[in-house]
Amino acid sequence: MAVTAAIAAVASVAVAGTGVVLANKAQKKGREAQEKQNAIATARERRGAIREARIKRGRVINASVQAGGQGSSGEAGSVGSIGSQLAQNLSFLDANLGLSLRIGQAQSDAQTFRGIASLGQTAFGALGGAGAIAKPFTTPTPPVTV
Question: At what angle do helices 73-126 and 2-67 cross, to 10 degrees?
Fold first, then answer.
């Protein structure tokens, strides 16, 4: 009977371990898809920011030409400001993507550790749990006769 229980315990731990491995693989695929989606969205936002900067730059230059001040310090300052704003926007988008990737990795790690903890709990329960630990301390020992 004890051998059957031990075999059942080992089998349940093996099944739980397989479940943890499969869950981690599925989570990794999901995380990779999410990272790809975030990268695509960030690339789209970067293109939009660059496009907007080019349009603004063109408007400033056009207004300067029409006012007869082409090449003026006002035009140069405006174009320089647009470039600075674009750099800030792109830097923000890059930082945001980096944070998103780190969040995804942290969530994946947390899920992995939850799976390992679940596996440990399953093994502990299958091997008798707290009762198995307490048993040696509660079983009366026969008196020693000399």
Answer: 170
pLDDT digits (tens, 9 = 90+) for 89-125: 999 999 998 898 888 888 888 888 888 888 788 878 7
Count CB-CB contacts under 10 A for residue 145.
4
Q: What is the pTM of this model?
A: 0.60
Exposure string (b/e) for 57-70, b if CB count within 10 Å is 16 or more?
beebeeebeeeeee
Cα–Cα distance for residue pair 21/115, rounded to 1 Å: 8
Closest CA to 131 of 4, 15, 5, 16: 5
Tokens (6 digits) for 127 = 């091997």
For CA atoms 45, 50, 53, 58, the dihedral sign is negative
Q: What is the CA radius of gyration of the chain?
A: 32
Number of H helices and E strands in the chain, helices first, is 3, 0
DSSP 71: T
Exposed, middle or buried by CB within 10 Å (0-12, 13-18, 19+), for 34? middle
Which residue, 62, 58, 46, 53, is CA-closest to 83?
Answer: 53
Greatest distance between any 2 Cα atoms in the chain: 119
